[in-house]
Structure formats: C-alpha cells, structure tokens
Write a structure and sequence with these properties.
328 residues, mainly alpha, Ferritin, 13 helices, 2 strands, 62% helix, globular, binds benzoyl coenzyme A, phenylacetyl-CoA 1,2-epoxidase activity, Aromatic_CoA_ox/epox, 1,2-phenylacetyl-CoA epoxidase subunit A
Length: 328
Amino acid sequence: MYGGGNTFDPITDTKQATEDPQKLQEFEARIERGEKIEPSDWMPDLYRKQLIRMIEQHAHSEIIGALPEGTWITRAPGFKRKLALMAKVQDEVGHAQLLYAAAETLGKSREQMIDDLLEGKSKYSNIFNYPAFTWADACFISWLVDAGAIVNQLANSKGSYGPYCRALERICVEESFHLKYGHHCVIHLATGTDIQRKMMQEALNRWWEPMMHFFGPPDKVSVHTEVLMKWKVKMSSNDQCRNQFLDMYVPKILELGLTIPDPLLRKNPETEQWEYTEPDWEVFKKVINGDGPCNEERLAVRRVAEARGKWVRQALLKPKTEYVTPLA
Ligand code: BYC
C-alpha cells in the first residue's frame, strides 16, 4: 500500500534514478502510442505518485466544492432551483466517489486520503475557500467554476491513465448539465431587475481573481506540468486551459451585459492569447496552503461529517456486536 500522504519532492522525485531504463522506455513508448495504462501495468513510481497527488486533490475538491453551493439548497429561489441544485450537489459528491476509487487503484486507501485532507496535508481547489454570500455567488460557481472544470477535465479525459480518464469522461457528462443549469441561473439574474443585475455583477467581481487562479500558476513557474504533460496525465497546460476558458466564456459574460473586473483583459489578435492583469499569486499561495477566507470552516464541516458518519461506516464493515449506534 502506498500511504505517503501528499508530501512530495519534485526535485528528487523527477530524477527517477531508481527506475529500470528498459521498463521506463517501454512505458513511455506505450504512452506515445496513445495506449491507456491500467492499474496492474508497470508504471514509474513518480507517475504513480503524481497521479495519486492529482486525483486525490481533485476528489477532495469535489466534496469540499459541494459545501459553498450546498448551503444554498435551502435558500434557493423556488422549488425548481432547489431541486436542480440538490441534484448538482449530489453529483459533485458522486464525482468524489469516482475519483477516490480511481486513486485507490494506485494503492492509497480512501481512509488515508480522507485523513490527509482532514489533517490539512492534502490540497484541494483554491476556489472553494471563498464564501458564497449571495445566491449570485452560487450561480457563479454553477456556471463558471463548472465551466473551468470542464475545460481542464475534458482535456485530461484523453490522458494516459485508464481509471482516471474513465472517471473524467463520466464527470464531464454530468458537469455539462451543471453548466447549463448555472448559465440559466446567471442569465435570469443578469437580465432581471436592477438589484438582481447588481448582485450578479458583484459576484463576478468577487470571484474573478479566484477563477483566474483556478487553472493553477503560470506555466513558467508550474512545478508539475512538464512531467505530467510528458506522461499525458495533463493534456493541456495551466495557461492553455486559462486561455481556452477566456476564449469560450468572456464573450458569453459580456453578452449578458456584465463587466469583467479587469481593465487590461483583451485578446491579442496576433498571438491569439489573452492578456490580463496578473492575478495576485501570493494570495493564491496563501489560500492553497490553508490561509484563505474559508479554509478552516471547510475542514471543520468535513470533520463533523466524518465524525457523524463513523457509525455508518463501522456498521457496514463490522459485525453488529462491535459497533455502537449514536442512539444506544
Ligand atoms: N487549487 O505545478 P502546478 C469542481 C497547486 S472541482 C489548489 O501547476 P499541477 C467542482 C498544485 O497542487 C474540480 N492548489 O500543479 C466541484 C501544486 O501543489 P503541490 C477541480 C493548486 O498539478 C464542486 C502547486 O499548486 N479540478 O470542478 O501541475 C462544485 C503547483 O501547481 C491549484 C481539478 O482538481 C488550485 N487551483 O496543476 C463545482 C483538476 N492549482 O501538490 C465544481 C485536476 C495548482 O505540489 N487537477 N495548485 O503541493 C489538475 O488539473 C491540476 O492538478 C491543476 C494544477 C491544473 C489544478
């Protein structure tokens, strides 16, 4: 069993001094031919560790990501919105199940992954450490956070590790419903009353920088992109995903009469790349390392959920005499 948490030394690990060169060459040739690597196949230790790190963080992002939207289920405006949001939040938790299962195929147990999350050893997406103050914040997440996630996940679903790719394919199908739901919610607010439009604009202002952070640090400083792209785990770099997101969604946001809170944002017609105000990467670092506006609250909620669900897990795993229900 691999149980090493997320402690990761990219410098020493990328040396791969201990790998059998012949096996490594065959492995890389398979990847080059576009074959999928399956759990029982030989793989370099670094490939395994990188996949565990990335899939595990992704799984945590799904369950933590359910929290800011989840708090809006009881306050969603109207029965249809409540139903749709409840289904979306359930889907996100289901995505975490698929992803934990994919990560488990690499040898790290789900219990260890959850422990590492609750002890603050594992990361999860920066974006879920911000509060959803208003209904418009929840709408922003459903539309644009899901949109960003699809850009990244659709690319990576064509990657090299079979279980992760299959999980991502299914997740993307569900996310595309979320996207339509979120877009519908945002259209409603952006074309509604003055108060609704203002509320939507303020949410966009709050979430724009975290959204730019969402795709990860710029390629020139990204630690893991090079090796992950070489082994086709990541199929697009952080900057490519960010650029694709801007290509697809800036026109849609502007079409709704909303203003993107970045006066420097423009597409350079020669390079075809978006130019923008560099988001504050020091803020990003703080947030992903546990010091964002909601990190403590998010983990506290997960800890309570874990403690409350313990008796159910015990009941499933152990004979009846060995567990105590909360009512006993
Ligand atoms: N947030 O070398 P880099 C969803 C970390 S959930 C936090 O570029 P990499 C949804 C990175 O881990 C979908 N940390 O990393 C759910 C690394 O730190 P460590 C979430 C980040 O791996 C519910 C360091 O910064 N999507 O859609 O090459 C409701 C250096 O970065 C972030 C995924 O998880 C970040 N944003 O690239 C609604 C996709 N960015 O590990 C919606 C899967 C970077 O060395 N993950 N870091 O300590 C990926 O595609 C890649 O891991 C990333 C980062 C593009 C995120």
